[in-house]
């Protein structure tokens, strides 16, 4: 069972998500929190597999809570949910350590699948989110020098895999694209994370944008 903690300041949203996720045969909502501060406390006690995190909340917002949760436990998986489809929130959420980003207007099926994807260790980067991230980093202009320098540690194939990860492809999709076994892709991803000192695929994607490995149309 995938254990989920729902964090949102609106009662109806929390109850709605609880009903949807508890109806799934492989999920259990183990708790709810009304703001970021309560979320940090409950994550420490309940140890959920996935935290569904709203962004705009009183006391402590979702971005601050995500930073604290990930700082306390690097293995924590946070799926950010918001009605605000804006560059600043996408960028800040992923930089805060979130494992994925999903809009609240997603269907029940998309929500459940998003939880499964994040729980399995994959990054949830919808195509619309990916495009916005690429646009944001393009707007920033010059790539970050440290990121640019660290690319040299990767092999040509690892760099190729990193670009595909940044484009939101799953291990299976990358394997199909490169015509290799999925286990081979998993090995490449693991080596990329170790070489670059990153915690997960989402950080790898952000790194790729910062290093300008991914550009509009690329």
UniProtKB/TrEMBL annotation:
Modified residues annotated as 4-aspartylphosphate in this record: 54
Molecular function (Gene Ontology), one example: DNA binding
Any Pfam family matching the protein: GerE
An individual GO BP term: phosphorelay signal transduction system
Keywords: DNA-binding, Phosphoprotein, Transcription, Transcription regulation
Source organism, top-level taxon: Bacteria
Domain Response regulatory: 3-119
InterPro entries the record matches: CheY-like_superfamily (IPR011006), NreC/VraR/RcsB-like_REC (IPR058245), Sig_transdc_resp-reg_C-effctor (IPR016032), Sig_transdc_resp-reg_receiver (IPR001789), Tscrpt_reg_LuxR_C (IPR000792), WalR-like (IPR039420)
Domain HTH luxR-type: 147-212
PANTHER family assigned: TRANSCRIPTIONAL REGULATORY PROTEIN NARL-RELATED, TWO-COMPONENT RESPONSE REGULATOR
Name this polypeptide is given: DNA-binding response regulator
